[in-house]
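Journal club prep, notes for RB
We'll compare a predicted complex against what the paper describes. Inputs for the zinc ion case:
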Amino acid sequence: MLEKIFSKRKKENSKVMALKGINLVDGLSNELKKDMTIIIKEGKIIEIGKDNETTIPHDANVLKLSGKTVIPGLIDAHLHLLQSGVDDFMKPYAESAYKKLKRNSFINLKSGITTVRNMPGGFGYSALKFRDKINEGKILGPRILTSGPALAPSNGYFSLKQYITSNTLMLFILSRIFRAHGLSIDVDSKEEGRTVVRKLKRKGVDFIKTVTPGSFIPFAEKDEKLKEELLEKGMKLEQIKASMKPEVLQEIVNEAHKQGLKVAVHTISWPDDFKKAVKVGVDSIEHTPLGLIDKETFKMMKSKEIYWVPTAYCFYNWTNLIDNPEQYDTPKMKELIPEPFHSLGKKSLQKVREGIKQGNDPIWSRFYNEIEPFKEEYFPVNFRRALEEGIKIVAAVDGGVSGAAYVPHGQLYKELELYVDNGMNEFEAIQAATKNPAELLGIEKEVGSVEVGKVGDLVVLNDNPLEKISNVKNINCVIKDGSIAYKSKGALD
Ligand SMILES: [Zn+2]
């Protein structure tokens, strides 16, 4: 697997590159190493040393970067390249999958991200083909590891039956064409779990995405009134009740591990369901449950070495946009979510906003009510508990996702800012976006820190992020596989 991910343009990389006069944050120690030189050859780091002790080969392309800070290339471990920050996955006519993948990848690359773990989106397996093209060096973008469609219970999260409930013919046609329900494949038994994991392995996915037990509308599990309201509105009982069975999840994990694949599970549910996934022994839990995670769960997570990918920023982003419509209309947002998606997002945000205000959107209204406790209590308390227990945190903002999000690509720094606001130091926050995700993705021998022998994935920053984490957004240039992949205006001067 590693060979495929790291095959790259040898010809272009044969030249030696030297970064001179830099301040280095290598991602291994909480220290700013001053006046350093890094030498890269054939895409790999071959030497790191003090400026005055390092001999630069005479044929090297020397980048004089006095005063700039170099960090390892960032890794965004949870984003959706096939979505542009709005609910566009059911609007494939708006833009080709290829164009979307290309643009969203480049937006991430520009922000210092040199590797991504891509989550489901769109239909079929287009992300896999695109991944290969990027990883072979045919297209410029961050290195991609991708899942296929998610494994979900029928009618549950991601199940196409949820979106096209009334049109069985359409559902049938789509599932015939794509041999999967696009975003997801319905899995209701242990046997189906095993079969689907094997099928995805054959297709060439890099990991398995599935869900924790629990309803995709968690509120309906504990709120009879809401349940009745939803049934009255025409929702089917199967949709409300759909839940991944712990024994099916266990089978998925067992089979995936047998096939050498890791398992990421999505949770926006109650902490009990989060705990069930921990017990099963998944590899990472994505997002944050609606409530407090107890210490026992974190202890279990620690002993099983399960990573936590909280994607906290998307919740903050969503309320900001619901409460402050003007924040969606900035030039920056229009650049990150280009047309026609910006207009689509604006319309659907407005609809959700009105539904909440008028109280006629029972699900989003419940969700909106959860945001305050999420920001005030669930996330800060859970995050501190995780830090105390030594849980490995992996940074991501769920870029591209729709629903309760509208998160554009290329904003990983916002998640890091939240981590620092909630008790992490700047160095740990950098590791949450470099070393920790490299381990979770199983590519820690190649990327995740600046070391001799590792791939030349580096971000040159104008300012030191150990002083202020927001400085990770002040990009000078991005180097991937030992080549300059992106230069900001006035960079490398
Ligand atoms: Zn996601």
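Talking point for the session: The CA atoms of residues 238 and 312 lie 29 Å apart.
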